[in-house]
Amino acid sequence: MADRGAYDLEQIKAILDANQVCHAAYVKDGEPRIIPTLYMRRGEHVYLHGNRQAALLRHLGSGELGCVSVVSLDGVVVARSGFHCSMNYHSVVVIGRGELVGADEHEEVLDAFVRILVPGHEKQVRSATRQELNATAVVRIPIDEASAKIRSGPPIDAEGDLNSDVWAGVIPLISQVLDPISAPDLKAGIEVPDYIRDYPGRH
Amino acid sequence: MADRGAYDLEQIKAILDANQVCHAAYVKDGEPRIIPTLYMRRGEHVYLHGNRQAALLRHLGSGELGCVSVVSLDGVVVARSGFHCSMNYHSVVVIGRGELVGADEHEEVLDAFVRILVPGHEKQVRSATRQELNATAVVRIPIDEASAKIRSGPPIDAEGDLNSDVWAGVIPLISQVLDPISAPDLKAGIEVPDYIRDYPGRH
């Protein structure tokens, strides 16, 4: 479709850095498996984390091939024909062999995951306990086999439809955050901190 | 994590019906492949469509196993420890053998895809041409092997952290649409129709 194609590594990193949730796929006994999960980009790798027993992490952690896809939806493309209706989006797919992250980087990456999810919160929370670190696995996939696809701009209609009386255009989509909701068991007197109030409107 | 688990078929259908974009995975020469794509639910199947030459559609159309995952993000769960930070979400995974949709249902499903993407627009656009129909493949996967996962509500912190001075709670996320942008080559005098102006704020 229109405007799509492969982009360079900087473009791929920019799309990865603008999102927090990916879908990760792996092969189990010859069958496809897929799961949505948090991720982060660091250097030339995509990092995933989770329960050490989780199938995704066991498969990728043992060096198997994984495939990670990230997409952000930017708008609905309304064309004069059904055939040319589409969506505007930024997406990246990374394919690579997983690798378990060693003890030297493990805790640092877990802290970075907190920062990616809630910037500023990583400075507030206590350190992870030994038990928490042991329960969690971190794997990474190199970004060297990766591609980006982007569709942007108005619909591209067939020449013969341009005189149509049907409306055409784009309905932009955005993600927004609403006011934070304090936990019901929050200790009395704790105010919503600035880094929560200023949470970026993207996701 | 908290509140997650398997849900019944009606719950699975409700999550599928509340979204338009999935990630679909398949296996190519033993390797995982994944791609974001539009989908719709109809009866007990998930339908995908696209260019007849696309690898996903060729694989699923020849009866191979596919895996479809849908997730909507509802909020960022901010816990008193990094370990318990998470996201609130609704998600569904469907695994099943693909099947090419026959000529009897092909055009009807393509029309339904327009309705799913832009409700009301399917009544305005011209019929698909023979060439457009031939260029497009529709495949479906049965929903009988499917599961839903939902996380909702406040963070569930460790007992020992409940007296912490760190703020905890949820930052709700929503998707919204902005004002529609008419195509630059739109015929003069065409107003934005009500069904575009009233486009639901979900995605």
Characterise the protein shown here.
- Two copies of one chain form a homodimer.
- The first copy, chain A, is α+β, with helices and mostly antiparallel strands.
- Chain A has a single domain (9-174), classed as Pnp Oxidase, Chain A (Roll), CATH 2.30.110.10.
- Helices cover 20% and strands 39% of the residues of chain A.
- Chain A has five helices and ten strands.
- Chain A has helices at residues 9-17, 55-61, 103-117, 130-135, 194-197, and strands at residues 21-28, 31-42, 45-51, 65-78, 86-97, 99-100, 136-142, 146-151, 169-177, 181-182.
- In chain A, strands 1, 2, 3, 4, 5, 6, 7, 8 and 9 form a nine-stranded antiparallel sheet that branches.
- In chain A, strand 2 and strand 3 (45-51) form a beta hairpin.
- The two termini of chain A are 25 Å apart.
- In chain A, 41% of the residues are buried.
- The mean pLDDT of chain A is 94.
- At the A-B interface, strand 1, strand 2, strand 4, strand 5 and helix 3 of A face strand 1, strand 2, strand 4, strand 5 and helix 3 of B.
- Strand 9 of chain A pairs antiparallel with strand 10 of chain B, so a sheet runs across the interface.
Low-confidence stretches of chain A: none
End-to-end Cα distance of chain A, whole Å, is: 25 Å
As an assembly, this protein is homodimer
CATH architecture of chain A: Roll
CATH level-3 fold name of chain A: Pnp Oxidase, Chain A
- Assigned CATH class of chain A: Mainly Beta
